[in-house]
Structures are given as structure tokens and as C-alpha cells.
Amino acid sequence: MGKPVWGTCAGLIFLANKATGQKTGGQKLVGGLDCTVHRNFFGSQIQSFEADLPVPELASKEGGPETFRGIFIRAPAILEAGPEVQVLADYPVPSNRLPDSDSSLDNKKENAEEGGKVIVAVRQGNILGTAFHPELTADTRWHSYFIKMSNGNVGEEASSSSLAPAEVDIDITTNQQPRIDLPIFQ
């Protein structure tokens, strides 16, 4: 219907035109996002992790650091993206972390191995997709990006914004870093 949509994690899978790694019979997809998503690419629930993602587009449009702390919970990954899809974030994947052999995935896995990365955030027109969970962080830049994208003004300076990225205070006297609850993917 042309309305803005943002799919995170399972929502990304539903928005994809094609999904792999599904159970027999598959999952009905809404579609609209010209990409191939691999369901549970990073593994099961116990293999959930956090990672710093380079996000130059997000940083240039919303300010803040050049990275975003992504929280991946039984996360999918985008293995292929069409020409109209803008890649907003990718993540390096060691070859030993790729999924077990599946004849339908062989070519896609080779592509992921060649580049050593999988795509974890994309935009196509008014559709935004993230394989991670931005809503579980204090950093609101993805939310601000989506709202501006929905209003057709991503990249424009907001005259007054309550959607500015959240400030994260680190106590420099004790050098305390932000709490990390999930393991780091390596």
C-alpha cells in the first residue's frame, strides 16, 4: 500500500521477497523488500550476541558515533540484496560461522564467504529492515531515521527534535563502560 514499514529481526524475514533456512513448507512472507534473508543465520537463542556495527549512513544522517551496538537474538542475515536496496550495515562473518551445508544455500554461502560479510540493515524506498534489535538499546538513531524516512525527510536537519540520539554517560573517573549483557560475536 506504499506505507512506511520497518521490520526488525523476524519482521525483516516477513518483509523479504525470499527466505531460506526455513522449516518444510516455509513461512508465508509479506514481501516488498528485494532481498534473500536466511532465517536464524547466526544460530539459536543461546548464540545471541552484541556487536558494534559500522553505520556511516546512520551517523551522517542522525549524528552520533560511526558505530551502532547491534543486539542479535536468533538473528537472520541478508545474503543477497537487489539493485534498489541500499545497504546500511553489514557484519563480518568468519567462514566457520556460516550455516551447515544446504543445497539451496551453497551459492549464497559462497557469496557470503567471498566478501566475508553479511548484510544486517537495509532500506528500499520506504521499507527499512534490520536483523538486530535497535529497540533494546538506549540509542534512538534508528528510530529517528525511520520517522524521518517515513516523513520523507531523512538527512534534513530537524529544527527541533525530541528524537535526538540518547546521550550515554560514561563515568570518566571510574572509566566504567556501558553494561554488555550478551556475548560478543567473534
UniProtKB/TrEMBL annotation:
Enzyme class of the recorded protein, top EC level: lyase
Pfam annotation, one family: SNO
EC number: 4.3.3.6
Tagged with keyword Oxidoreductase: no
GO molecular function: pyridoxal 5'-phosphate synthase (glutamine hydrolysing) activity
Signal peptide: 1-21
PROSITE patterns, per the entry: GATASE_TYPE_1, PDXT_SNO_2
Keywords: Glutamine amidotransferase, Lyase, Signal
Keyword Calcium: no
Source domain of life: Eukaryota
Stretches for region Disordered: 93-112
Protein name: Pyridoxal biosynthesis protein pdx2, variant 2
Species of origin: Stylosanthes scabra
